[in-house]
Amino acid sequence: MPTPFLPANVTVSTHPCIKAKLSQLRSSSTSPKETKALVHELALLLGTEALARVLNVTIDGQDVSPLGVSFPIHKATPQRIVIVPILRSGLGMVDAFQTLLPEPVPVHHLGLFREKTTLQPVEYYNNLPTRVTPNDEADLAPCDLAIVVDPVIATGGTAEAAIQTLKEWGVAKILVVSILGSTEGVARAASESGGDGIEMIVGAIDAELGGQGGGMIVPGVGDIGDRLFLTIGK
Question: Which of 77, 147, 150, 181 is the most exposed place for a label (fewest CB within 10 A)?
Answer without folding.
Answer: 77
